[in-house]
Amino acid sequence: MSKSERTLSGLSENSNGNAETHELQPADIVFVDRGIMQSKYTDPMEFAEVEELLGTSPAPRPCTLVWRDVTVHIKHKDGKLKRLVNSVNGIAKPGSLVALMGPSGAGKTTLMSALAHRSPIGTVVDGAIAMNGRTVGDFMHLESGYMHQDELFVENLTVMEHLTIMARLRMDRRTSSLARKRRVNQLLRQLSLYGSRHTRIGGLDGRKTLSGGERKRLAFATELLTDPGLLFCDEPTTGLDSSSAQKLMTLLRASAVQGKTVICTIHQPSSELMALFDKLVLLAEGRVAYAGNASGALGFFESLGYHCPITYNPTDYFIKVLALTPGSEGASRHAIKSVCDRFAVSDAAKELDMEIHLEFHLIDNQDEETKRTKSSNFKPPFFHTKIIWLVYRYILMVLRDPNVQLLRIAQKLAIALTAGLCFIGTARLTQAGIQDVQGALFIIIAENTFSPMYSMLHIFPEEFPLLYRELRAGLYSTPIYYVARMIALFPGLVIEPSLFTLVVYWIAGLRSTFYAFGFTVFLSILVLNVAIACGSFFSCAFGSMPVAIAYLVPFDYSLMMTSGLFIKLSSIPKYISWIRHLSWLMYSNEAMTILQWDGVQNITCLTDETGAPCLSTGDEVLSMYDFTTNEFWPDIVALVILYLGFHLLALIALRYRTRRK
Ligand SMILES: Nc1ncnc2c1ncn2[C@@H]1O[C@H](COP(=O)(O)OP(=O)(O)OP(=O)(O)O)[C@@H](O)[C@H]1O
């Protein structure tokens, strides 16, 4: 490629002779007609080079979205309906960038999420909405992109990691690994994120993190991975400075030029930004106040007697006319109603109605075969692929913070050393030694129960917002998320209890057989995993940490009281003793006690030692606690059942919680 060609293609050479990309500026584009772009340079070859900058992937599937008489209500808890959008019509065609504007509360987001089939639960959408002849449904999650106003990411990941994982979760499973990598790299370059590809999205203290504009572009890149033909963007420029807003809108414009249909809610754009839109839909009080060519809006308002002062930005003026004026809401509502009524009988509305009517007519008359060929044959990734990549994501999150992990292990070791040192030399075969051994066992059980269980309570509530969003985007299902989350935690759930038990066991000098030691470590791992499962259940069931704690504290007390250490199991009153069947503290205490005392024959009995009745064999120790050696394997089975049971309950609770959203 010659130097001149590179310069025209948006690639220029820096002083070192290296190629650099520059972003396409609005001034580089001239809009000739709706959806048709030409470079300001006239050579057709140059146009092709601009296209290259925008992306060399095949043209997106053309998408026509049409909606007629769309009314949206929200259902209140008392069953009453509140109308948010009132009988709205519209059409968005391939290659067009549509601005959805209106004062705050006009119903822009409500309408857009209804069009995108992403309305929250409790919303009732009436009317007809069709994309390429198909009534909108769950397929919209696969065939359209939705850029939310507030972008959510796993903040610990880098830009590259995020896009790589999203490519695995979103793209067709038949896409080759090379093609996925190329797509990610292409988007990084197109959206000027290549230089930040190794930057964390929302790093830790003092680390470089993405700017607001870069975050928006990353959200945009995420939606573009599958190259959907239809894009919804909810206030993409909010929070950006004018230059970043201009860059982002230029990218949206470029997407439309490529053939995508882009619908965008936007707050009072500058004249420069407004020039990028082909169509304008003005909403007020849930109704359409104007829909048509952006250039025609001024004429329509003038025909109603609203003359935009020369010093005003027209869009600011339209919003001013359509907003409720504090103190004179009644008059404002009357004026808004009059604008909407006048638009409904205007020529622009009639033209729009005809277009919509024609589109629905074509839909009604197309045969099943045509409908089928219009639907995409997207094949989502296999469930195991999703699990693997989600596990990878959560492991990265954990590893990203090595200091926290090291601190946790150091803390465990410090507690283990402190506890072990208290018991050093006390675990002897004497009457006093019996209590000391039981004390050391309880420390192992308690340390692997309480703090891990409570540490789970914050995990799910913190991840709910991103989880809801990714579930609604159809990236994975609730069970896949839950299983992946648990697998990612698993290494820590083995290492931590093993280390703790190893240290306490050997410092305290508990029974020195490999069998007793090995099974005690195994039991401590099992105990910690049951505690994590129980914590997960409370976290998923109650959804917020304070509420979960309020229920978990009495529950864990009852488990502790029925563990067999504080009160003889046979002495517990009947009406409460059933709780011990849920108590993993009891099962593990019994199993670990059996490991320590089974077969022990020679416990020293000095009458002046404690004054208590003398226990000279392990069996006598076990029977003092109402434990029997036959219960060893049933205890392990009970722990496994509790582990599975709590996880199942947690999954059911999570599914219920995510379904309601
Ligand atoms: N779940 C809900 N319950 C009750 N009212 C709601 C609910 N969701 C939205 N609304 C109301 O519906 C109206 C339209 O909301 P919407 O978010 O669509 O407005 P918007 O035009 O996007 O506003 P903004 O520009 O401020 O984001 C608002 O008055 C809002 O208070």
Automatic annotation (TrEMBL):
<keyword id="KW-0812">Transmembrane</keyword>
<dbReference type="InterPro" id="IPR017871">
    <property type="entry name" value="ABC_transporter-like_CS"/>
</dbReference>
<keyword id="KW-1133">Transmembrane helix</keyword>
<dbReference type="InterPro" id="IPR027417">
    <property type="entry name" value="P-loop_NTPase"/>
</dbReference>
<dbReference type="GO" id="GO:0016887">
    <property type="term" value="F:ATP hydrolysis activity"/>
</dbReference>
<dbReference type="GO" id="GO:0005524">
    <property type="term" value="F:ATP binding"/>
</dbReference>
<dbReference type="Pfam" id="PF01061">
    <property type="entry name" value="ABC2_membrane"/>
</dbReference>
<dbReference type="InterPro" id="IPR043926">
    <property type="entry name" value="ABCG_dom"/>
</dbReference>
<dbReference type="Pfam" id="PF19055">
    <property type="entry name" value="ABC2_membrane_7"/>
</dbReference>
<comment type="similarity">
    <text>Belongs to the ABC transporter superfamily. ABCG family. Eye pigment precursor importer (TC 3.A.1.204) subfamily.</text>
</comment>
<keyword id="KW-0813">Transport</keyword>
<dbReference type="InterPro" id="IPR003593">
    <property type="entry name" value="AAA+_ATPase"/>
</dbReference>
<feature type="region of interest" description="Disordered">
    <location>
        <begin position="1"/>
        <end position="22"/>
    </location>
</feature>
<dbReference type="GO" id="GO:0030659">
    <property type="term" value="C:cytoplasmic vesicle membrane"/>
</dbReference>
<dbReference type="Pfam" id="PF00005">
    <property type="entry name" value="ABC_tran"/>
</dbReference>
<dbReference type="GO" id="GO:0140359">
    <property type="term" value="F:ABC-type transporter activity"/>
</dbReference>
<keyword id="KW-0067">ATP-binding</keyword>
<keyword id="KW-0547">Nucleotide-binding</keyword>
<dbReference type="InterPro" id="IPR050352">
    <property type="entry name" value="ABCG_transporters"/>
</dbReference>
<feature type="domain" description="ABC transporter">
    <location>
        <begin position="65"/>
        <end position="310"/>
    </location>
</feature>
<protein>
    <recommendedName>
        <fullName>ABC transporter domain-containing protein</fullName>
    </recommendedName>
</protein>
<dbReference type="InterPro" id="IPR013525">
    <property type="entry name" value="ABC2_TM"/>
</dbReference>
<feature type="compositionally biased region" description="Polar residues">
    <location>
        <begin position="7"/>
        <end position="19"/>
    </location>
</feature>
<dbReference type="InterPro" id="IPR003439">
    <property type="entry name" value="ABC_transporter-like_ATP-bd"/>
</dbReference>
<keyword id="KW-0472">Membrane</keyword>
<dbReference type="GO" id="GO:0005886">
    <property type="term" value="C:plasma membrane"/>
</dbReference>
<feature type="transmembrane region" description="Helical">
    <location>
        <begin position="520"/>
        <end position="553"/>
    </location>
</feature>
<feature type="transmembrane region" description="Helical">
    <location>
        <begin position="632"/>
        <end position="654"/>
    </location>
</feature>
<feature type="transmembrane region" description="Helical">
    <location>
        <begin position="480"/>
        <end position="508"/>
    </location>
</feature>
